[in-house]
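anyone seen this seq b4? input:
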Amino acid sequence: MDVALVAGLIEERDSQGPGYSSAYLIDGSACDLLTRKMGDDGSGNYRCCTEDCDKPTECRGASIAALICMDADFSENDRRQAAVLGRMVLRETAYRILCVPAHMMTYGSREVALAWPTDVSVVVANSSPKQPSVLRFGTEASCVRGNENMVRFAVLL
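predicted toks r here
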């Protein structure tokens, strides 16, 4: 079985301080930057990105994008989120998947997943036990509590 994954990580610290909170698509030997977190949650654990760093990419017939944690709290008026959706549509793929690496404690992860347009599948991988991880396809959302360790596979093709 071939597997591709999206990983959220905080990049190495440098002379400017903490590294960026980033999401990468890892597929075989390829490792492509999808996004960096722009929102500041006040933790001091990462450096906020101040430039356009959203790079949806095509992988195996799907357009894959990522937004990290609070950056994915959907609003129809958010220019950045509209740009990400537009870039996904430009890829003209059969599927659009938004991956959300997160540590959501106050944002409702299920509500965040359900707020996105239904033609975008949303995967919220939440590391906080206060909110669930969520797989949302169409209008159906499947939640996994933060204290459960589970791997779920979804066949798209």
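The two ends are 14 Å apart (CA to CA). The chain has one domain: 4-144. kinda curious what u guys think
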